[in-house]
Amino acid sequence: MKKINVKKMILTAIFAAIAVIGSMFSVPVAGSKCAPIQHLINVLCAIFLGPWYGVAAAFIASVLRNMMGLGTLLAFPGSMCGALLSGLLYRISGRRITAYLGEMFGTGVIGGMLAYPVAAFFMGNSSATLFMFVVPFLISTIGGSILASVLCETLARSGLLAYLKGMLGDESNEGNEVHNTDGRGKEGYNNT
């Protein structure tokens, strides 16, 4: 039986809360509310927590956003597909670029297409089409993924990314590119 990581559960809840608060700053595009902070959080979840915690954070955020009137049912396919693909690609490759690209394709294309049946059958939108939400979802996810890449690359260069991941129990070597000969990052944080 796998040990439950309480730190990861707490961080999942914190990330979900940040996504909900961040959705207060959304932009309406073609019938959907584009919330780039959700996509930033999806990438951070992929890198720090993995795909399953990321999907949980996206689901919790979507439920809360809908309960509070800050989102629509389209939040579910939009956020959860991106979180899952971002987390899986990052887990497989260990490269941050795959987390960014996974978020963009998962949310923009897969989530955008899966939004069609949600809009048509659950929301009663008779004018919805298969590709109607792809462009608005892409706009939102590209913005959030750019924010995530700036944040994560800055953390990686400083050595904090590996340090923070180590605090969560992640023993991967990702983020350790800035090692000195003594095993410490540029800023003196132990990356191993």
Describe the structure.
- Helix 2 packs across helix 5 (96-122) and helix 4 (75-93) runs antiparallel to helix 5 (96-122).
- This protein starts with 5 loop residues before the first helix and ends in a 25-residue tail after the last helix.
- The longest helix has 27 residues, at 96-122.
- A two-stranded antiparallel ribbon has the order 1-2.
- The chain has a single domain (6-158), classed as Arp2/3 complex 21 kDa subunit ARPC3, CATH 1.10.1760.20.
- The protein has helices spanning 6-22, 36-48, 51-67, 75-93, 96-122, 134-158, 160-167, and strands at 27-29, 32-34.
- The chain has 192 residues and is mainly alpha-helical.
- The relative contact order is 0.14.
User: Strands across the major sheet, in which order?
Assistant: 1-2
Query: Number of DSSP strands?
Result: 2
- Summed over residues and divided by their number, the pLDDT gives a mean of 87
Radius of gyration: 17 Å
> Biggest sheet, open or closed, and with what strands and sense?
2 strands, antiparallel
Number of domains: 1
CATH hierarchy class name = Mainly Alpha
Query: Helix segment count?
Result: 7
CATH architectural grouping: Orthogonal Bundle
- Class from secondary-structure proportions: mainly alpha
Instruction: Tell me the distance between the termini.
Output: 26 Å
Instruction: Give the CATH topology.
Output: Arp2/3 complex 21 kDa subunit ARPC3
Estimate what percentage of residues fall within beta strands. Answer: under 5%
| Overall spatial form | globular
Order of helices and strands: HEEHHHHHH
Low-pLDDT parts are 175-192
